[in-house]
Structures are given as C-alpha cells and as structure tokens.
Amino acid sequence: MLFDTHVHLNARQFEEDREEVIQRAKEEGVEYMVVVGFDRETIPLAIEIAESHHNIYAAVGWHPVDAIDMEETDLDWIEELSSHSKVVALGEMGLDYHWDKSPADVQKEVFRKQIQLAKKVNMPIIIHNREATQDIVDILKEEKAEEVGGIMHCYSGSVEIAEACVKMNFMISLGGPVTFKNAKRPKEVAEAIDLDHLLVETDCPFLAPHPNRGKRNEPAYVKLVAEQIAELKGVSLEEVSEKTTRNALKFFNIKE
C-alpha cells in the first residue's frame, strides 16, 4: 500500500488518459493520492478529481510563481474550499526564486497570507521551495507555522535543514530525485531522517524517477521512490510503504 502525497493529475499532460493513469497506480499498490491545485485553472479540477474517486484527496493553494496574479478574492475562495470534505491541506505555497515572474516581496506576502489562513482554518500546509530555503525557513518560524505543520514537498535540501523542519512539525517528502544517480542530498536525507517523518510523492507529471527520468511521471512510479528509500535505509519496501502511508493518513487526518 502506497500514498502518493503530491500529484498533478489536474495537469494538461493527463487530459487524454487520466483514468488509465489512476488505474495503473492502483495496480502498483498506490491506494491514496493528493491532487494539488495551485491556481484558478487547477484548483477546480483537483476538487473534481477528488470528488469522483474514493481515495483521492485535494490540496488547494497558490503557487509562488503566480503570486503576482493572486487577489484577495482568491484567498477568500481558498478559505471557502478548505472546508470541503475532500480537501486535506493548503498548498502548494512557498517561494520560487528560479523564475522571475513574481517579485520576491510579492511571493513572501502571498506565502505569509496563506500560512495565516492555514492557522485560521487549522489545516496543514504543503511547501514549494526552489532556491529559497533560508527565506522559507525564516518565514515558517516567524509565522509560527509549526502550529499547523506541513510538508516540505519534493525535498532537496540538506540533512541539517530537514532536521530543523522536522522540529517545526514538518514532514519531509521525497520524490523522483532520490533515485537520480547524481542526487547526493536527497539520498543523504533518506538515510538520515527517521521513517516516522518521511513521505513519498511523484510530483507527476514532473521529475520521473530513474529509469523513467525525462518521461512523463505518473503516480504508479512512486513505488520506485519507496524502493530507493528502502534500499538506502536497509529495510524492506513493505516497511517503507506501510510507514509512509500511515504517516500520510495521520498527517492529512484521513480516517480509513
């Protein structure tokens, strides 16, 4: 049993064969998924997919790359959706300094507003971080995000920062990069961080794990991530699968 904690089945890359993709995931033992909506286009579809599948849930938030497009009405909308029975987290949110569409100060403001909203509605958050680690950690501390906790999505930082995040009530989620031969940091994190604090994800259709690197990613491939973590930790795939699934069910407050 596996739980892919971060999928974008609402992406255009899955328009033609979404149901087949979901079926392939089930055949590989992927029992649960969270579809992440992060703008006006992807949020409604995330909700729709979650509503039409028993063990698929949704997260709703505003992506930092598009922070400049967010209006107060969007924040009100996210607050309204947070009470939906299939919405289990707010996000993805955070900072992305790789792309320059949204200025850093705008990203930070939108990030802070979403953390504040999460605390208001008592819901965990999913963090997107690209080339902005220290600013993200500083904002999480300043906004007391540990009160709701969250997920460091597709984590690629150091063991030291991962340990600091765990102390702030955050889970560390590993994706396809942990399987890449040249990805030293995710492997170190997989070895160092206790299974009690780990989750697995694909971030599909992006970041397909080896040996599918460069192809469209899909939830069925989360098994490859779990296999790599098991190998690095010297434990069985079953132990990693069961523990990360239990972690996710507890984190998202999903009753089986």
From TrEMBL:
Entry protein name: TatD DNase family protein
Database matches in PANTHER family: D-AMINOACYL-TRNA DEACYLASE (PTHR46124:SF2)
GO cellular component terms, semicolon-separated: cytosol
Pfam families found in the cross-reference section: TatD_DNase (PF01026)
Species for this entry: Thalassobacillus cyri
Lineage of the species this protein comes from: Bacteria, Bacillati, Bacillota, Bacilli, Bacillales
Residues reported to bind a divalent metal cation 1: 6, 8, 92, 203
Residues noted as binding a divalent metal cation 2 in the record, renumbered to the chain: 128, 153
GO molecular function: DNA nuclease activity; hydrolase activity, acting on ester bonds; metal ion binding
InterPro entries: DNase_TatD-rel_CS (IPR018228), Metal_Hydrolase (IPR032466), TatD-like (IPR001130), TatD/YcfH-like (IPR015991)
Assigned keywords, A-Z: Hydrolase, Metal-binding
Keyword Cytoplasm: no
